[in-house]
Every structure is written in structure tokens, then in C-alpha cells.
Amino acid sequence: MTSLLPKFSRRGGRAAALPALLLLLALPPAALAGKGEDVIARVQKNFQSVQGLTVHFEMRHQGEGDALLAEEAGKLFLADQGRFRMEARSQTVVSDGETLWSYSPADNQVLIYRAAEAGDQVLTPRQILFDFPQRYRVEAVETAELAGRTADLLIMVPTDEADPTRQLRVWVDRNDGYPRRFIIEDLADNVTVFDFENYQAGQNLPEDTFRFAPPPGADVIDMR
Questions:
Q1: pLDDT tens digit string along 60-94?
Q2: CA–centroid distance for 177 within its chain
Q3: What is the pLDDT of residues 92-140, one digit of tens each?
Q4: Cα separation of 146 and 59, whole Å?
Q5: Strand partners, 87
Q6: Does residue 22 form part of some domain?
Q7: Contact predicate 122/3, CB 8 Å
Q8: In the chain, beta strands by DSSP E
Q9: Domain span at residue 203?
Q10: CA distances from 120 to 7, 43, 117, 141, 179 (A)
């Protein structure tokens, strides 16, 4: 069983208006880097202080000629200490910060990992929403509109030459500092789009949100 979210690991095998673009091109590299760092700092501040947060997501994975290879939608629940829950049509992934459960209803199969080691197997919400600046550097910052919102568009490239990603684009809402869209382009010309809507911060999420009990009869494979 594989994750519903395409995995882009180090081992894995511009819509701005013309005046804004010209302004960005006129900025010295240090000023451009500083602007990108400011945007990223706003994103990280949101997630560093998260106590309980929910958000709806949609994902589309496209191949050559924009052929749709996969699509998914669902809801994320995030809390502190690395706890999260992702509920989608084809998969549920849950972590209490120490253990991660990945359940596929179609196979009635549960994979169990140590949370600290699961990043090599499952693309977690933290990797997408919070940790991306550790793996990518900002090449350009633009002003863009997305679903009626003004956003800072970060255009980023991998810091590791072995990374199969060609480019990452991140739309960060200028009003609240939350990422609203990620577009990942890989070296094989595949494109994965993540959209995030309806962020709800300060939620009082029950403890059992971040625990998972395998359904009766499920095939449980413990990878710890």
C-alpha cells in the first residue's frame, strides 16, 4: 500500500502583473531573499503555535499533457507535538507524535511506523505545510491573486541536486499567512497541485483524534 499523496524525497527517483514582476526583477538578490524569508516566517509562526487546527484539502496529480493520474480530497487535523490526522476517501493517516498509522480501506490494511521515521514513506502535512523551506530555496517572490485573495507567490527550487523536484510554487495568503496552494513539478514533467481551504485555528480537538484503532479483520503490518 502506498500513500495517496505522491512522495517527493531526496532519494526519489507566473501569474503576476507586469509592474510587480518588473519591480521584483529590479530588486537586488539580498532584498528578494529577505522578502521570501519574511513570507516563510509568517507561515512558520502559524504552525509553530498551533494548538488545534483543521483545514480542507484537495489534491490533483497530473502527468504528461495534463493527464489526470490521481485526485483526492479530505480534511486535515493538526495539533502540537507532531500530532495530525488526515481523512480522505482512499486513505486515513494518523499520528500521535510517536506512532503513525496509515490505513487503506480498499485493502483493509494498516501500516504502522515510528512517526520519526515515517517521513520516508508518507508525505505528512508537516512536510507540505511547514517544513518545505528546509528543502527548497526561494528564487523569486511575486504578487498573485488566488480565489479572490491577494497572495505572495514563492517560486522555489530544491537545495539538494538529487531531489527529483524541478520547482515548487507556494501561494501564501497575504492576509492570514496560511499556504493556500502548492504546485510541485518534477523532472519527469508530472505536476501535483494541493489546494487548502477553510483553515480553522484554535480548535479543541479530542485526544482520540490522533489515535487509530485498526478495524476488525484488518491486515496490520507493523514496520516499527
A1: 999 887 888 889 999 999 988 888 999 998 899 99
A2: 15
A3: 999 999 999 999 999 999 999 998 887 666 667 777 777 778 888 899 9
A4: 16
A5: 75, 92
A6: yes
A7: yes
A8: 52-62, 68-79, 83-88, 92-96, 99-104, 109-114, 136-146, 149-158, 165-173, 179-186, 191-201, 219-222
A9: 18-222
A10: 8, 23, 7, 29, 23
pTM of the predicted model as reported, rounded to 2 decimal places: 0.77
Based on the structure, what is the number of domains in the chain?
A: 1
Q: Phi/psi at 217 (nearest 5 deg)?
A: 85, 0
Is residue 200 within 8 A of residue 55, CB to CB? The reply is yes
Is residue 197, in this structure, part of any structural domain at all? Answer: yes
Phi, psi angle pair for 102, to nearest 5°: -125, 115
Phi, psi angle pair for 146, to nearest 5°: -140, 115
95: domain CATH number is 2.50.20.10
Q: Would you say residue 3 lies in a domain?
A: no
CA torsion 120→90→1→64, rounded to 10°? -70
- Residue 182 and residue 154 in contact, taking contact as beta carbons nearer than 8 Å: no
11 in any annotated domain: no
- For the record, the C-alpha cell of 28 comes out as 537586488
Please name which of 209, 200, 168 lies closest in space to residue 46, comparing C-alpha atoms: 200
